Fold this protein.
Amino acid sequence: MIRDFARSRPDLYGAGGEPRSPGHALALNTLCNVADCVRHGALRGFLQDADALAMQPASLAGVLADLKKRFPTIEHVSAYAPSKTCARRTKEGLETLQGNGLTH
């Protein structure tokens, strides 16, 4: 299931589910960590990045929607982002992320 998900998002995880850079390898590893937590009954997810909101809101909303679709038991998804990044996001962009499951 994880390989299928990764293959469906080559922009995030590399072509064919194989990482094409250290950044893509980290993203794939993070996805595996989330899957492992959900498999063991976790209800919360955390986007493990130094600045998850650095992604464009539409791209991050797509990731959140995919997570909720693939792992329906997740109730809360949180992410770290410095205040500078949050301040650059519009109210509408943040509301889009909240609507797609980002809770903190």
